[in-house]
Amino acid sequence: MKPQLTILAISLALAGCGGSGGSDTSASAAPTYTVSGTITAQNIDLQSQVCADINQNYMCDSGEPSSTANANGEFSITSTKKSILSVPLLAQVDAGIAANSTSASASSYAYIAAPGLQKNTGNEINGISSLLAGYVADGLTVTEANSKLKAQLAKSGISISGDIQDDLSASELASLEQNIVSTIKAFKHSNRAFMLAQLSAKFDKSAADYVNGVLTNEEVVAFANFLEGELKAATALNDTGVIRYFSDIDDTQDVAEPQSSFPGQDAEYGFDKTELNTNTGNGFQFAKLDANGQVLADDAAEWSCVLDQRSGLIWESKTDDENSIQHKDRLLALELPGVVTPYDQDVDLATCKTKGDQVCTTQDYVEHINSINLCGKSDWRLPTFHEFYNLLDFGETETNSDGRAYGLTYKYFPHQTAGIDYTSYIGSVWNQSIIYNQYSNTAVDGGFYYNEIGTLGGDRGYISSLEIYSGDVDSSDNYDSYQFPARLVSLQGK
C-alpha cells in the first residue's frame, strides 16, 4: 500500500525542504463542467433556484453551484466541480409551510430533486424524478430505483417502457407527480434525505390513492405526518453503553457506583442508567433475527441478523467461516454507484482474488446479499456514517484474541473484524462517508477523502480521514489505497 502522509507531516516536510524548491508556478485554467435541464413540476414557481447538492444534505447551501431557472423552468449550472454531474440536482420551492405547520423545525422551502445521471443536458426535475432520487438517497443505483418505481406503478396498472427518467412528464403520471410535490412541501423535518427515501418506498402504501387523482391537503398532510413518525422511530439514538464510573481514588479500575468527588460522568445519564437500574441492558435494545427475519429468543445460539429496536435498523450478522462470503474479515474495494468507481489495485487485493469468486467490491457485496434476500430483505446497503457510529458500544468489555475490546455489543455481534495492519485505527468497516470538504495539495487526482471509524480497543469511536482511490486514479503511477470489510444495514418494515 502507498504510505499516506498526514497534512501536518506534509507541511513539515515542505518546510524542511526550504519552501520554493523550483516548483512550477504556472497555472492553467481549471476545467469547467455544465449540467442543464428543466423544472417540469406542476403548480410551482418555475423560476426557482436550482443547485447541485454537493454535500448531499438535500438542501441548497451557500457556496453550492446553483442558478435560477427562467420562466420556462430551464436552468444551467457551471462549476469546476466535476461532481455536479453525479450528485442530486435540487429545485428550491416555496413550501407554503405557514398553512400546514407551526413547527419550529419547519422550513419555508422545500426541495424537489433529480438523481445525478452523469448528463450534461436534458436533466428534468419534478415529483417523479424526486421518487427516483429518494431511492438513490437510500443506497440504490438509478437502475435499481427504476425497477422499484416501475413495480410500484404496476400495482396501479401503469406501465412505463424504458427508463422512467426519460418519461417523467408522462400523462399517466400527472396526478402522482403533483401529489409527490405536495407531500414534499408538507414535510416538517429537516432530515430530507430520509423523508424523501421513505416517501419513495411507501407512497403506494398510503391510505390515499397517490396515483389516481389529486389528493386533498388533509390527505397529503396526514401521510407526511405518518412519514415524520417513521423518521422518529428510525433515527432514535442509542446510548453509549457506558455503565461504570471512573474513580479518582483508584484510577486503575472502573467502579459501579457514582462518584460524588467526580460528578457528571456518562454512566449517570440516559438509557444506560435507566436500563441498568431495571436490569434491562446498557442503553441498547437488540433482537436476534432468523434467516427469514423473524425474532428469535434472546438466548438463541444462531441468528442471521440483528434488529436495533431503537433505530429500526437491521444489521447483517457476520461469520467466522473463512469460506463464507459473509466472513468478518473479507476485504472489499469501495464502490458507491454514481459516486466512486472501484480502483483496480484495491480490487486486486480484495479477498475475491484468493477465493476465486466475483464479490470484489462493496457494490458486488450489496448485490450478493440482496440476491439471497438475507432475513427476508432486499434493500441491504452500506450504512451511513451516523448509522454505524450509533451502533458503537463504548461499555463493551469483551475482548478479541489480541486483547482489544470490541466496538459492538459482543452478545449480538460476536464476529467483528480484526482489522488490517496498515492502519492503527483497526476494526474498520466501510460506510458511505465520502467527504468533499478536505483538501491537500498532495491529493491524488481521482481520489476522495473518507471518514474511517475505529471500532476496537482504545480506538473505538476514533475518526480518521483517509484518502481512497477511485477508478479515475492512474494505477500506473500509484499503489493501492484501502480495502475494508463491510457490515450491511437494512430498514425495518421495508
Fold topology:
Elements: H1 7-16, E1 33-39, E2 49-52, E3 66-68, E4 74-79, E5 89-94, H2 97-100, E6 109-114, E7 123-125, H3 127-137, H4 142-154, H5 174-186, H6 192-202, H7 217-234, H8 270-277, E8 286-289, E9 305-308, E10 313-316, H9 344-348, H10 352-355, H11 362-371, H12 385-389, E11 434-435, E12 447-453, E13 463-469, E14 489-491
Parallel strand pairs: 1-7
Antiparallel strand pairs: 1-4, 2-3, 2-5, 5-6, 8-9, 9-10, 10-14, 11-12, 12-13
The main sheet orders its strands as 3-2-5-6
User: How many H/I helical runs?
Assistant: 12
**Helix amount, in percent?**
10-25%
Whole-number mean pLDDT: 84
Detail the poorly predicted runs: 1-26, 98-106, 274-280
| Largest sheet entry | 4 strands, antiparallel
Structural class: alpha+beta
**Amino-to-carboxy terminus distance:** 39 Å
Q: How many beta strands in the DSSP annotation? A: 14
Total of domains? 2
β content, as a range?
5-15%
* Element-level helix/strand string: HEEEEEHEEHHHHHHEEEHHHHEEEE
Principal-axis shape: globular
Rg is 24 Å
